[in-house]
Design brief:
Radius of gyration of chain B: 22 Å
Mean pLDDT of chain B: 94
Largest sheet of chain A: 8 strands, mixed
CATH architecture of chain A: 3-Layer(aba) Sandwich
Distance between the termini of chain A: 23 Å
CATH topology of chain A: Rossmann fold
CATH superfamily of chain A: Thiamin diphosphate (ThDP)-binding fold, Pyr/PP domains
Largest interface: A-B, 50 and 58 residues
Number of strands of chain B: 22
Oligomer: heterodimer
Radius of gyration of chain A: 20 Å
Strand order of the largest sheet of chain A: 3-1-4-5-11-10-12-13
Low-confidence stretches of chain A: none
CATH class of the largest domain in chain B: Alpha Beta
Shape of chain A: globular
Number of strands of chain A: 15
Low-confidence stretches of chain B: 1-8
Strand content of chain B: 15-25%
Structural class of chain B: alpha/beta
Strand order of the largest sheet of chain B: 15-17-16-19-20-21-22
CATH class of chain A: Alpha Beta
Distance between the termini of chain B: 60 Å
CATH superfamily of the largest domain in chain B: Thiamin diphosphate (ThDP)-binding fold, Pyr/PP domains
Largest sheet of chain B: 7 strands, mixed
Strand content of chain A: 15-25%
CATH architecture of the largest domain in chain B: 3-Layer(aba) Sandwich
CATH topology of the largest domain in chain B: Rossmann fold
Mean pLDDT of chain A: 95
């Protein structure tokens, strides 16, 4: 296990050149994962269609992946990436893993490789839930990173099954008679555990040390490691520049997506999010930071404090209850071994 | 490609697709790990799925067999699994079956595996809606340059309303534009021989296009016949003569990005290039087929099988068809000729995509009437009819063309059905009008 500073000084496989929105959490996650994976093992990424794909692999623009301007002399620092359709990333990763293992088994490959799948929640939880769960079910020795921005951001901020209640998306728009998304999000953390994952986590780079440590553990896992990365989307969630990390922290601490790590046989923990909601930031503080919930909550023009819009009290209470349920469920999952 | 340079550990070579690190994958070790299935040439009795399974198992480049069952292709994966299960190495055997949760996952898996190592061959078998279910990724695979993907299609109609497992080639013909090299087979020997040759064609550096050999469900997949199986070493010798390590990097031995998002300008150029690669099949296929025939003493890949053209530049009626029902035509051809005082020949298409337009034109140009027998649902005159009509269109005096549908839904095209079609062709020969198309069933027009 590397130290935080040591990891921070490693070279990331995610280089300048992407056209992701400034402040995009996906970019921050890739920068960090890119450093963790600079660990002496050749890295192969698979990526389903997503913001990350269209913004980082747009030939003939600069491909934002790889270590350095030239291919490294050292094979272990070389890097390959493959993109295929939305749902495909876990299956692609499993295939690469199998080929590497088969070649290794007959002595044809002596260098180890590590395989990381990247999907958005649209790709992994909507279109690709089947692919995600079956790759986990087959215990493929891969790391799966799912960037959860709760929308199909790539195609214009449409609803995804990870969307929070009452979120204003382009396909669940708020109107006089409809308060945004009426579905509760799918419990993807529990699904991943139930499907047989060896490691399951929900953590963003806003919890910097925990994120790096979790990704290191994931890459070392002997089974399938699934890391859901809450990824505030500056364009889809509609917040201001420079607030990505703050909003990610607020979302985690208020119970919208608590930081959580779990390993089979060891159990897990919820980090930085007490089960007693009085000890957490109020959910409306998280809601007020984004204009996708501006129909529920607004910031006081003078103080900046969140204010529930008149007549929306019941809706906010339902979000609060949902968040509390989130936290309690994760605490219970943490007890499982 | 640049001149190779040597780094501290491994030779690496810059290619248009990124860096390739030599010697990361030792293919000789893969070859050495191959478990021989046949030491000597043997004649066995086998159905089509078994013939296809044996052919794939005999290739040393096939390590992983991905699959998902769907009738009538299921016995391919079952046979592969049963054969591997007999390997005393058990779970340590070099070859492995990979069962996925659905056909779509199989297609995605093939993409990842084939990109991981471009020098191995990744086969699967499917049918009907299984092929449909793969479509999102088969369209990508068709453009991918991954000629090491082989999807064996066991023909079955593509509809679940009403549901039936009979084999007509609606599935493969509905996927003419997926970008695969599509080769139709008839008979167990042709199935076996075609599958041995298909990756040689697809993986050629000038082509790099995945292949889709196919055969009729039930009629060929489930009925047994005599099959000559070649020794593994001869299969390897034939394939190795054609297959050099891929010049482009794979995910494992490369520093590369695959499946990029591209600008419109590059996409448009790419699509032109993809079409050119596919057209090169027309140049290479006969060479591979001829080499196969030299090596094994049986006919190799060809654009079509033919009957009745010997030394006869002009024919009254030429048939264009595909599949095992062509054998019924071959069986009755001479008698029909004699009885009606007509000259009669025919072709059974082997290469469906790219369609060998020039070769078909050359073969059929001397016919006065061409009877095109389509066995798959089509909204118009039939897939084959349109291709044949296109091939003949620029002749100064093109033959009259009759579009016939027979054998729809996997029906046998009986002798009486053939004769009914030929009777109508004879009438057209005598001046009767030819309708755009006509369907035949159980011995008569319907």
């Amino acid at each position: 296990m590397s130290g935080y500073k040591e990891t921070a000084l490693k070279q990331s496989c995610f280089q300048p050149g992407s056209t992701l929105c400034p402040g995009c959490m996906e970019s921050v996650a890739f920068q960090n994962l890119g450093r963790v994976s600079d660990n002496g093992v050749k890295t192969i990424f698979t990526i389903g269609t997503s913001c990350a794909e269209v913004s980082s692999l747009a030939y003939p623009n600069v491909v934002a992946w790889g270590r350095g301007d030239q291919a490294p002399e050292d094979f272990t620092r070389s890097f390959s990436i493959i993109h295929n359709v939305f749902e495909s990333a876990p299956t692609l990763a499993e295939a690469v893993r199998d080929v590497a293992d088969s070649l290794t088994a007959c002595g044809a490959l002596t260098q180890p490789v590590q395989v990381v799948a990247n999907s958005g929640d649209g790709g992994a939880i909507a279109i690709g839930l089947r692919a995600l769960l079956h790759t986990i079910h087959r215990r493929a020795r891969v790391t799966i990173m799912v960037l959860v921005n709760e929308i199909f951001a790539n195609t214009g901020f449409q609803y995804s099954p990870a969307a929070m209640p009452f979120a204003d998306t382009s396909t669940t728009p708020v109107g006089p008679g409809v308060p945004g998304n009426l579905q509760l999000p799918i419990d993807y953390v529990h699904l991943a555990i139930a499907a047989g994952a060896e490691l399951v986590a929900q953590v963003s780079p806003a919890h910097g040390k925990l994120f790096l440590k979790t990704m290191e553990r994931a890459l070392e896992s002997t089974g399938t490691a699934v890391v859901f990365v809450p990824a505030p989307c500056i364009s889809g969630w509609k917040f201001d520049d420079g607030e990505t990390i703050e909003i990610a922290l607020l979302g985690a601490r208020s119970g919208a997506f608590p930081a959580f790590t779990w390993e089979r046989g060891k159990g897990g923990k919820v980090v930085d999010c007490p089960v007693d909601q009085k000890e957490r930031p109020p959910i409306e503080a998280f809601l007020a930071a984004q204009r996708r919930f501006q129909h529920l909550v607004r910031k006081n023009a003078d103080t900046g404090a969140p204010e529930i819009r008149p007549g929306r009290e019941a809706d906010v209470e339902r979000v609060r209850a949902w968040a509390q349920g989130n936290v309690e469920r994760l605490y219970k999952l943490a007890e499982m071994k | 490609m640049s001149e190779p340079t040597r780094g501290p550990d491994l030779l690496h070579i810059a290619t248009p697709s990124g860096e390739r690190y030599e010697n990361v994958i030792d293919l000789a070790k893969v070859r050495a790990a191959h478990r021989v299935l046949y030491e000597e040439r043997e004649t066995i009795s086998a159905d089509g799925n078994t013939a296809a399974a044996i052919a794939t198992l005999q290739m040393w480049r096939c390590l992983l067999f991905a699959g998902f069952p769907i009738t009538p292709s299921t016995k391919w994966i079952e046979t592969v699994a049963a054969t591997i299960a007999r390997d005393p190495a058990g779970t340590q055997a070099a070859k492995r079956v990979k069962l996925l949760e659905a056909e779509h996952a199989v297609a995605d898996y093939l993409a990842g595996a084939a990109a991981a190592c471009r020098d191995l061959i990744f086969p699967t078998a499917t049918s009907s809606v299984g092929l449909d279910h793969m479509t999102e990724t088969t369209r990508s695979l068709g453009a991918s340059g991954l000629g090491n993907v082989m999807i064996i299609d066991v023909y079955r109609a593509t509809a679940n309303y009403p549901l039936c497992i009979e084999g007509d080639p609606s599935d493969t013909l509905a996927h003419r534009d997926d970008g695969f090299i599509q080769i139709a087979c008839r008979g167990k020997q042709q199935i076996y021989d075609t599958i041995v040759q298909a990756p040689v064609l697809g993986m050629h550096p000038h082509i790099m296009t995945p292949t889709q050999p196919g055969y009729y469900g039930i009629k060929d997949s489930h009925r047994s016949a005599r099959l000559t199986v070649e020794p593994d070493r001869e299969i390897h010798a034939f394939q190795d003569r054609w297959m050099a390590p891929c010049p482009l990097p794979g995910l494992i031995n490369g520093d590369t990005a695959f499946g990029n998002c591209v600008t419109s300008r590059h996409f448009q150029g790419f699509k032109v290039s993809q079409k050119r690669r596919l057209e090169r099949v027309l140049e290479l296929l006969p060479r591979i087929g001829a080499d196969f025939e030299r090596h094994f003493g049986r006919p190799g890949l060809a654009f079509f099988d033919q009957a009745g053209f010997d030394d006869r530049p002009r024919l009254d009626i030429a048939v264009a068809s595909m599949g095992p029902d062509f054998g019924t035509f071959e069986a009755l051809r001479a008698a029909y000729e004699k009885r009606h005082d007509l000259s009669l020949g025919g072709i059974a298409m082997r290469l469906l995509t790219p369609f060998p337009r020039d070769q078909v034109r050359q073969r059929l140009a001397g016919a006065r009437v061409v009877l095109v027998v389509n066995q798959a649902h089509h909204s118009g005159r039939g897939h084959l009819t349109l291709d044949v009509a296109d091939a003949l269109a620029d002749l100064e005096r093109p033959p009259r063309i009759i579009g016939a549908f027979a054998g729809l839904g996997g029906a046998d095209v009986s002798e009486s059905t053939w004769e009914a079609m030929l009777d109508d062709a004879s009438a057209v020969l005598g001046g009767a009008p030819a309708p755009p198309w006509r369907a035949y069933h159980e011995g008569r027009p319907v």
